[in-house]
Design a protein that fits this description.
Oligomer: single chain
Strand order of the largest sheet: 1-8-3-6
Order of helices and strands: HHHHHHEEEEEEHEEHHHHH
Helix content: 40-55%
Distance between the termini: 61 Å
Largest sheet: 4 strands, antiparallel
Number of helices: 12
Radius of gyration: 32 Å
Length: 354
């Protein structure tokens, strides 16, 4: 006990001072190790920042090992620096392995940057989503049908990566599906997990396209297991459906050029099919690159949300016959029961935040 008190007294009250300073500089390995330590501790955060830090630290400890062996001639110095060098080397190898493990193919990497990264979706969560679709990119050749009206069962959910797909019903054009949009979001939302159904529209590829697809049962199991992924899909599907509804709203014109809100169920009797001129105009508008969902500042509305908007055009459209029901209206009644019951669909401003 007295020896410990004496040792503490010597450290605190009577500190030892160096009496004979060495005027000979240490070897170059010592100073080089200090430089690498300085550079290593200037690293940032994240995986690449950790690789930077442990890379320079491992080189610094290696230089310290060389200095302890050649100049200091201290066995303890050599042992400690070798041990620290091996630890840093092991950590560096582990980080590089994790980085290679988290890499995706070009299509899935671009999908993450465009959709999930702006929403700050964790990479581990994205890996679960990709794993659910088995990391497969499926091709869709030109003029090939993805779904046939009344025949194809609704057993999956697909997301278009490239190309353009035309949606039609009874031979009438409805709208296009462009890259980074769901192919069958209305059909997915129209059924409950225990229900079965068939497509009420036909989807045909107008150009060579590719898409990813999740099987219905596997995706429902994932959504039931992971609440965060369920909320993420709810946001993406709600945004996608609202975009399709607002696109269809541009095609709904009553007599004398009056334009109404698509959410009003009492307007079914005034719907008319889209003309060829309108179809060509829509294609011309979307020839430019489409801004993906992720580039939007937030999941917000693209048009004012009002109960009923009436605008008088300088050149009103010709009136359409009352007896001619549009394939557009049939599609809405079939795939959006909320409209038929008088309930407004989820507006973009009502989408829950992640």
């Amino acid at each position: 006990m007295s020896e410990e008190n004496t040792f503490l007294d010597r450290i605190i009250f009577h500190p030892l001072l160096c009496e004979n300073w060495k005027y000979i500089m240490e070897g170059a390995a010592y100073h080089l190790a200090s430089v690498f330590f300085l550079l290593g501790y200037m690293g940032g955060s994240g995986t690449f920042g950790a690789i930077y830090i442990f890379g320079f630290l491992s080189i610094g400890f290696l230089c310290s090992t060389v200095w302890g062996w050649l100049n200091a001639c201290g066995l303890d110095i050599v042992i400690w620096n070798v041990l620290l060098f091996l630890i840093c080397l092991f950590q560096l190898a582990h980080l590089i392995y994790q980085l290679r493990k988290d890499t995706f193919s070009e299509e899935f990497g671009l999908l993450y940057k465009q959709i999930c990264q702006p929403l700050q979706v964790p990479l581990q969560t994205y890996k679960e989503i990709v794993k659910c679709c088995e990391e497969q990119v499926l091709p869709l050749a030109k003029d090939q049908t993805y779904a046939v009206q009344g025949k194809t069962s609704i057993d999956r959910l697909s997301f278009l990566l490239s190309g353009r797909v035309k949606v039609s019903q009874d031979g009438q054009f409805l709208h296009y599906v462009f890259p980074y949009q769901f192919l069958d979001s209305p059909e997915w939302e129209s059924l409950r997990p225990s229900e079965e159904g068939t497509f009420q529209v036909t989807l045909t590829a107008e150009t060579d396209s590719c898409f990813i697809s999740w099987q219905r049962k596997k995706l429902y199991l994932l959504l039931a297991k992971e609440r965060y992924i369920a909320r993420l899909f709810s946001v993406l599907l709600g945004y996608d459906i609202s975009e399709k509804l607002y696109a269809l709203n541009e095609k709904l014109f009553a007599k004398f050029g009056l334009q109404f809100d698509i959410r009003l169920p009492s307007l079914y009797h005034v719907l008319g099919p889209a003309s060829d001129t309108e179809v060509e105009k829509e294609v011309a508008e979307y020839e430019e690159p489409v801004m993906p969902i992720g580039d939007s500042p937030a999941v917000g509305p693209t048009a004012p949300v009002v109960p009923c908007t009436v605008s008088h055009s300088a050149h009103p459209r010709k009136s359409r016959p009352d007896s001619d029901l549009s394939a557009l209206g049939n599609h809405l009644r079939t795939n959006h029961p909320a409209l038929a019951k008088g309930r407004a669909p989820l507006a973009p401003t009502q989408t829950p935040e992640l």
